[in-house]
């Protein structure tokens, strides 16, 4: 399932950093600012958020991520953006 793939890949700081670079744009710039305010690199900050989400996500939370990813040309990135956006209250 795509949600498990997001949890597996994006909990790695290096892969999370690459995914953020692929998302790009205003979202990635805003996220980098949030990471900096938390004294972390964007990849580390994203990986920590994904790990925390994976540990605590309810079935509804997982379904929300799946819905965000569903039908996207890049479902992993869409799901990651949804998770990170919820955590930093943007987009």
List the topology elements:
Layout: H1 2-10, H2 13-23, H3 25-37, H4 42-56, H5 59-69, H6 75-88
Helix pairs in contact: 1-6, 2-4, 2-6, 3-4, 4-6, 5-6
Q: Can you count the helices?
A: 6
Portion of residues within helices: over 70%
Low-confidence stretches: none
Tell me the major beta sheet.
none
Distance N terminus to C terminus? 24 Å
Percent of residues in β-strands:
under 5%
Describe the structure.
This protein has 91 residues and is mostly helical. The protein has one domain (2-88). The protein is built from six helices and no strands. Helix 2 (13-23) packs across helix 4 (42-56). The longest helix has 15 residues, at 42-56.
What's a quick, concise take on this entry?
This protein is an all-alpha fold. It has helices spanning 2-10, 13-23, 25-37, 42-56, 59-69, 75-88.
């Amino acid at each position: 399932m795509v949600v498990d793939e997001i949890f597996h890949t994006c909990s790695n700081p290096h892969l999370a950093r690459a995914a953020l670079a692929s998302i790009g744009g205003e979202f990635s710039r805003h996220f980098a600012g949030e990471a900096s305010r938390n004294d972390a690199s964007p990849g580390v900050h994203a990986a920590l958020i994904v790990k925390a989400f994976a540990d605590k996500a309810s079935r509804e939370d997982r379904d929300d991520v799946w819905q965000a990813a569903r039908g996207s040309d890049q479902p992993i990135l869409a799901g990651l953006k949804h998770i990170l956006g919820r955590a930093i209250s943007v987009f």
